[in-house]
Amino acid sequence: MPYRDLRNLSYPPADHFVGSVGPAHLEQALRARADAASAEGGDRPLALLVNVPAAASPARVPGNANASGIARVSRRTDDWLDGLARESSLASCALGGRAPVCSLRVAGRGGPVSLARPELDTLMITLRRDFRLEPGAGLAIELDTDIASPDRLVHLRELGFDGLVLRVSSPEAAEDAAADGLFRFESLRTRVLCARAVGFTRIEIELVHGMPGQALEAFTRGVSQVAGLRPDRVTLRPWPAPALPPKPAPEPPDDVRRQARLAAALAVLTARGYVAFGLSRFVLRGDPLAAAWRAGRLQGDGDGLHADPGRDLVALGVGAEGHVGATFYQNERTTAGWLDALSRGQLPVACGLLSTRDDDVRRAVIADLQWRGQLDFTAIGHAHGLDVRGYFADELARMARLRHEGLVTFVPDGLVVTPAGRWATATIARVFDRRFRDAQRRERFTQVP
């Protein structure tokens, strides 16, 4: 399993957050950011993430839904838009007004975004009211292939979106007839060509792998066809459904099948000009992320991978994860809890964490191991003003076992993940996760014999 979920790439991750960090901490961090901008005579642009819950999806209402079902979805959507307007206003007020934004991502929670045209208009009116989308800011949205119609793509471009994330449920649908919401390859191709024709400059395709009955040969062929479309980025997302009951015929273990799929995708995409970040993310060699990867500046947060390690991420919506300065936070995970907090006039933060210098160092180390497959002692030491061998003496001692297992090898000024270790990135990176070890230690101490 990847060390982090595909979208939630920040360190420390949300499973380390605590309830004692809440709305007041985020408000203080936002106000401190505004004060610093005022003192410096300028405001550094931030990134903005909006989580859209699957329940707020009028475009997903089945064609045979009755009037009451349509009304329920409409009410949920209106409630969510009202709540988002309140949250956006609260964040903007704490920031001292319309803070500049260099990146916006509208992401689906529980599935791609399925807002209908009027709701998308309302969403963007709200965001432009409370934030200043800078000229050249990257605006991206996640869509499923089944609703990425030409009319919708044109509308999104009119709203200012220039980045598109298309989720494809099954690569082998390239050959299969459309069924259960899965599309032929020609359908995906049409959407990609249409997106380019109307002016989208960044296209990412998410391939869901590991579906029940997914054949390796068909998956590999589908990945090859997708690579032929030359999307700027390709992401492999594991199928979340539970495994089917055992079949009479023996099958390889899940991990073996997963490695076979990822190895096939890795071989196909790297041969077609893509750079691999770990095992699940690929970008064309000319992509800005590839340059950041080569320079060791690649970082991740709730908005995905980016090349600006110092940026703040203001996250809005149910369950959204963001960070401002040293304050990392996650919003209430249920719509009811999120709306309740907003009705009381407070930011809907459920939990969080105050990041330390130690977290900053470990974030850089874990990012290097996950995305570059190496750890450069000199680069990390120079960036953070420390002696890596001394600072991580315990962790490097633990690496001896992994070196014995052939997962890493030590070089004069660092360590490198071996081809075999590429499949054990989680194990390797977790050695440097102090908070994970502390949590395990507390759990052992609190267990009753």
Question: Could you explain how this protein is built, in words?
Answer:
By secondary structure, the chain is of the alpha/beta class. The protein has 2 domains: 14-354, no CATH class; 357-446, Arc Repressor Mutant, subunit A, CATH 1.10.10.920. The protein is 42% helix and 22% strand. The chain contains 15 helices and 17 strands. It has helices spanning 23-40, 67-94, 117-130, 150-158, 185-198, 216-228, 254-271, 288-295, 335-343, 357-372, 377-384, 388-391, 393-404, 425-430, 434-446, and strands at 46-53, 99-109, 131-144, 163-168, 202-209, 233-238, 274-277, 281-284, 299-301, 304-306, 313-316, 321-324, 327-331, 349-354, 374-376, 408-411, 414-417. The strands form 4 sheets. The chain has a 9-stranded mixed β-sheet with strand order 7-8-6-5-4-3-2-1-11, sandwiched between helices. Helix 2 crosses helix 9 (335-343). Residues 1-8, 60-66, 172-183 and 241-251 have low confidence and may be disordered.
Distance between the termini: 31 Å
Q: What count of helical segments does DSSP give?
A: 15
Class from helix and strand fractions: alpha/beta
Determine the oligomeric state from the structure: single chain
Helix content: 40-55%
Mind describing the biggest β-sheet? 9 strands, mixed
Strand order of the largest sheet: 7-8-6-5-4-3-2-1-11
Count all strands and give the number.
17
Low-confidence parts? 1-8, 60-66, 172-183, 241-251
Number of domains: 2
* Cα gyration radius (Å): 22 Å
Q: What portion of the residues fall into strands of 2 or more residues?
A: 15-25%
Based on Cα principal axes, name the global outline. globular
What is the typical, i.e. mean, pLDDT? Answer: 85
